[in-house]
Design brief:
With 208 residues, this protein is α+β, with helices and mostly antiparallel strands. Among the domains are: 56 residues; 37 residues, no CATH class. It contains 7 helices and 7 strands, in the order H-E-E-H-E-E-E-H-H-H-E-H-E-H. Pfam families: HTH_animal. InterPro entries: HTH_animal.
């Protein structure tokens, strides 16, 4: 792709004032009008038939690109978390049969994403939005507070000498076994999520 970009930009009659790519997504700032922009897209797609671009332009001052990019009056760019219109805000429910650490991790990941993608102006609103979403998914204030205040680099289990046992998470049975392993053998237990139906049924079988 680096070679493609160099050839495409060097030979383009009209060029963007900036071109940033992450894997197969490209962010471009264009100031030479919509007609020249279409011409630039056609130019890109004419170089290699196996590499074809599609284009999405700014709408109402916003453009999704990994995050949601928005233009500011001073010419700078703001950024916050982007969610597709079809997103349901349904996550791992607090009452689901998963180990508590898995549920807590589901919250912490979303908080970490907010802090990584949001600028200072939008971070507060995103965290408040996440609090509401967590409550709708059944989490209490203690769990939410823990997710919001967890240090992203903290790790209570970083002893290289520690032994870990990966066990199926089956409610109180898992807890009993974990206590025995921890007390007598100094082994930390990690709960594995339950199997999905797709893991049980063989492929190629239809059920009426």
């Amino acid at each position: 792709m680096k070679d493609f970009e160099e050839r495409a930009l060097d030979s383009a009659p009209h060029k963007p004032i900036c071109w940033f790519r992450y894997v197969d997504d490209t962010f471009v700032i264009w100031i030479q009008g919509p007609d020249n922009l279409k011409g630039f897209l056609n130019h890109l797609n004419s170089i290699n038939p196996c590499i074809q671009f599609t284009m999405e332009t700014e709408s109402e001052g916003h453009l999704p690109f990994l995050a949601l990019i928005s233009g500011r009056p001073d010419g700078s760019l703001g950024h916050t978390v982007y969610r597709k219109p079809t997103h349901t805000n349904l996550y791992l429910n607090a009452k689901s049969h998963h180990h508590p650490s898995s549920k807590q991790a589901a919250l912490s990941i979303l908080v970490h994403r907010a802090r990584a993608l949001c600028d200072q102006e939008s971070l507060r609103a995103e965290l408040e939005f996440l609090k509401d979403i967590f409550r709708r998914n059944g989490y209490n204030d203690r769990q939410i507070h823990r997710a919001l205040n967890r240090h992203p680099n903290s790790n209570q289990h970083d002893d290289p000498r520690e032994t870990v046992a990966f066990l199926p998470f089956v409610g109180t049975i898992f807890n009993r076994i974990s206590r025995v392993l921890s007390r007598h053998l100094i082994i930390r237990s990690v709960g594995l999520p339950p199997k999905k139906i797709s893991n049980v049924l063989r492929p190629g079988i239809t059920w009426d």
